[in-house]
């Protein structure tokens, strides 16, 4: 199968993720969309790795996974604590530091 | 013997440290310690002098290296002393006359409760001055130079409870600072030109240096000399310095301080010899000051201020001689030494008169004192005869030589300088006779009920007698076979001047103008009684009473001018400099409050910005690769 299709899929996933981040208000959904974008990138890395015949892309993908796991831990903790204090998870409401 | 040189400076320095840090337990013995250490320094000086005389003329200079003060890379500033014939002359004058003044002060300051401190300052003064004349480089000389300035400040303002004394001390210090600036610039110029400031290398290198640089160095040295030696235009501090106790005036005028400028010019002779323009400036300053001081001296009724005018004038003679080059250096120093004797004697005499007259200084309230103070009268009289250049006494030999050398300068300059020097001699005779007549002759103008004039104690009169003996014989002694000139020649070099008028004519005319001056003074102050209140006087007299308007000039030009200049500068600073800085800050503030609008606080708008930014980056990368 032509590896370019994987790239198309990665682009599609990334676009969906980006649109979700921009459009949705619920923090959990925004968060999942970020994960979607990260995984789209991973897919692209692995595809390029396959296309060029070396392992660099695969290694980067592992790094991304580690970072994403750490990010999930911190991000979810923040979202949970915001929800506990405000009883909402809307990202637009968390704007107390604006003037 | 070289190792003894440091002892010359160390003795008075230890004295100053002891007396100033010793506290009250030294109150009763302090003056003896101070005097003893000054005399000890003199004894070391005499021993070194005897040693020096025992060697041939070319091997007389001694050198002592103490330690390296600032060793930085290739640069070195040492603390090292050089004792040659010139320094030796100064050492003997400073320690000798200084010791006599110390002894005199024991009596003069007897009832002053801060006498210990006074002797501490006197010792500090001696130490600084000795450091100045013994240093083997300009940087160490500068240390002594500043030390002298400090000690003079402390001593002039010794009676600091009097506002006038405190002001006079500040004035002396500030005016001296102007001169010090000249010396520091000269030292910096020397460093950039020669890479060193030791006397030996600097003075040896003058032949191979451009005249412009040497002229700049010379003029800066002259400025320094003007400050310390009270020469026009930095002369204004000298008259006010009379606020200090009289022994201080004697010390400043005879042994230390004002002689420093003459020393500096003579020591730097090689620089001036190679820079005729600077030398001309020196001569002009000397000639102007010698007349200026003489005119001021004629109008003062304060005995100490009249003597101060005379010092200014006599130092003018020395500077004039030093500006004449090799034909004058030796005579400048010779006049300096003889002047040291008679001026110290005159000041100590004036102090003795004040001591007996309830500290009255106005000569119009003296009169007829010769009967009450015979020893003071006699010693003051001998000093008087010496300073006016009475034939056979010290001043005659030294001043006559300077006048002769001035004529020998040659050309129109020679005639002008010689004429000025002769005129100065006449005016000197006039004002000194005036002082003499107003103080010791004529009617009593004091109230016998309140004032009881009396002779001073032995401890004060003995130094005066010694100084009077010096005033009588020193000049003659120096002139036998030109012994003084021969002594100094290896250091200052000497050339016989060729005067267009013969030496006999000069001597004869000196005596004639001397008699003229004395005669005029007698007609004005001896033949008829002196009014107890000063008459209004002519315009010149009134100007001379105000020191020829020097303070008014300084006030107008420097004080008011300076105030205006600073006010203008402050306003410029506020409007221009501050305006530019504040304007930049304000425009930055406005710009950032505009940019702040972008920060909406909505996370998703930031996300759009990030996405847009990333898109722009990708587009840019693609475009660049396309090119």
TrEMBL record, chain A:
It comes from the Bacteria. It catalyses: a quinone + NADH + 5 H(+)(in) = a quinol + NAD(+) + 4 H(+)(out). GO terms for molecular function: NADH dehydrogenase (quinone) (non-electrogenic) activity; quinone binding. GO terms for biological process: ATP synthesis coupled electron transport. Its EC number is 7.1.1.-. The chain crosses the membrane at residues 6-23, 28-48, 60-83. The keyword Isomerase does not apply. Its main location: membrane. It is an enzyme of class 7 (translocase). It is found in: Cell membrane; Membrane. GO terms for cellular component: NADH dehydrogenase complex; plasma membrane. It is a multi-pass membrane protein. Keywords: Cell membrane, Membrane, NAD, Quinone, Translocase, Transmembrane, Transmembrane helix, Transport. NDH-1 shuttles electrons from NADH, via FMN and iron-sulfur (Fe-S) centers, to quinones in the respiratory chain. The immediate electron acceptor for the enzyme in this species is believed to be a menaquinone. Couples the redox reaction to proton translocation (for every two electrons transferred, four hydrogen ions are translocated across the cytoplasmic membrane), and thus conserves the redox energy in a proton gradient. NDH-1 is composed of 14 different subunits. Subunits NuoA, H, J, K, L, M, N constitute the membrane sector of the complex. Belongs to the complex I subunit 4L family. NCBIfam families: PRK05715.1-2, PRK05715.1-3. This is NADH-quinone oxidoreductase subunit K.
């Amino acid at each position: 199968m032509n590896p370019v299709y994987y790239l198309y899929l990665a682009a599609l996933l990334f676009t969906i993720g980006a649109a979700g981040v921009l459009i949705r208000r619920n923090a959990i959904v925004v968060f999942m969309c970020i994960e979607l974008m990260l995984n789209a990138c991973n897919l692209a890395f692995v595809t390029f790795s396959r296309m060029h015949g070396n392992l660099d892309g695969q290694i980067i993908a592992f790094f991304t996974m580690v970072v994403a796991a750490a990010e999930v831990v911190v991000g979810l903790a923040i979202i949970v604590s915001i929800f506990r204090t405000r009883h909402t998870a809307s990202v637009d409401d968390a704007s107390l530091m604006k003037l | 013997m070289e190792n003894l040189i440091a002892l010359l400076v160390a003795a008075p320095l230890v004295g100053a440290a002891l007396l100033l840090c010793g506290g009250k337990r030294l109150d009763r013995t302090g003056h003896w310690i101070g005097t003893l250490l000054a005399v000890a320094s003199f004894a070391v000086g005499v021993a070194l002098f005897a040693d020096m005389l025992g060697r041939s003329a070319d091997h007389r200079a001694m050198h002592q290296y103490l330690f390296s003060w600032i060793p930085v890379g290739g640069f070195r500033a040492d603390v090292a002393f050089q004792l040659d014939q010139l320094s030796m002359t100064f050492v003997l004058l400073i320690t000798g006359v200084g010791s006599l003044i110390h002894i005199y002060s024991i009596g003069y300051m007897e009832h002053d409760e801060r006498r210990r401190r006074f002797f501490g300052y006197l010792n500090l003064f001696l130490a600084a001055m000795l450091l100045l004349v013994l240093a083997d480089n300009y940087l160490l000389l500068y240390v002594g130079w500043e030390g002298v300035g400090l000690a003079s400040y402390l001593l002039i303002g010794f009676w600091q409870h009097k506002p006038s004394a405190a002001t006079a001390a500040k004035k002396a210090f500030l005016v001296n600072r102007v001169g010090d600036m000249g010396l520091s610039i000269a030292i910096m110029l020397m460093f950039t030109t020669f890479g060193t400031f030791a006397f030996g290398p600097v003075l040896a290198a003058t032949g191979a240096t451009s005249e412009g640089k040497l002229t700049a160095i010379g003029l800066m040295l002259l400025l320094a000399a003007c400050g310390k030696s009270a020469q026009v235009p930095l002369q204004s501090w000298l008259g006010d310095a009379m606020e200090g106790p009289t022994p201080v005036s004697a010390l400043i005028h005879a042994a230390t301080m004002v002689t420093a400028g003459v020393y500096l010019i003579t020591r730097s002779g090689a620089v001036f010899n190679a820079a005729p323009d600077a030398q001309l400036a020196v001569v002009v300053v000397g000639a102007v000051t010698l007349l200026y001081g003489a005119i001021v001296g004629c109008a003062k009724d304060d005995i100490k201020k009249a003597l101060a005018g005379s010092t200014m004038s006599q130092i003018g003679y020395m500077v004039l001689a030093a500006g004449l080059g090799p034909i004058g250096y030796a005579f400048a120093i010779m006049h300096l030494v003889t002047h040291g004797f008679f001026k110290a004697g005159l000041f100590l005499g004036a102090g003795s008169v004040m001591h007996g007259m309830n500290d009255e200084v106005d000569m119009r309230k003296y009169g007829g004192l010769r009967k009450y103070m015979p020893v003071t009268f006699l010693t003051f009289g001998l000093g008087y005869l010496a300073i006016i250049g009475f034939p056979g006494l010290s001043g005659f030999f030294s001043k006559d030589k300077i006048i002769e050398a001035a004529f020998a300068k040659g050309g129109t300059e020679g005639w002008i300088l010689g004429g000025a020097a002769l005129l100065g001699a006449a005016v000197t005779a006039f004002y000194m006779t005036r002082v003499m007549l107003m103080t010791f002759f004529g009617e009593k103008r004091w109230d016998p009920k309140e004032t009881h004039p009396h002779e001073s104690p032995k401890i004060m009169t003995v130094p005066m007698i010694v100084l009077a003996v010096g005033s009588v014989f020193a000049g003659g002694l120096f002139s036998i076979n030109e012994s003084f000139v021969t002594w100094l020649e290896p250091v200052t070099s000497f050339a016989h001047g060729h005067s267009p008028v013969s030496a006999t004519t000069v001597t004869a005319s000196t005596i004639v103008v001397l008699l003229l001056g004395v005669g005029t003074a007698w007609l004005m102050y001896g033949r008829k009684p002196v009014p107890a209140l000063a008459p209004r006087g002519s315009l010149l007299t009134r100007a001379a009473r105000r020191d020829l308007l020097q303070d008014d000039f300084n006030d107008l030009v420097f004080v008011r001018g300076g105030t205006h200049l600073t006010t203008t500068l402050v306003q410029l600073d506020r409007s221009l400099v501050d305006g530019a800085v504040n304007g930049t800050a304000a425009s930055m503030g406005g710009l950032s409050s505009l940019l702040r609008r972008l920060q909406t606080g909505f996370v998703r708008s930031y996300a759009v910005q990030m996405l847009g930014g990333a898109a722009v980056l990708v587009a840019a990368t693609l475009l660049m690769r396309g090119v």
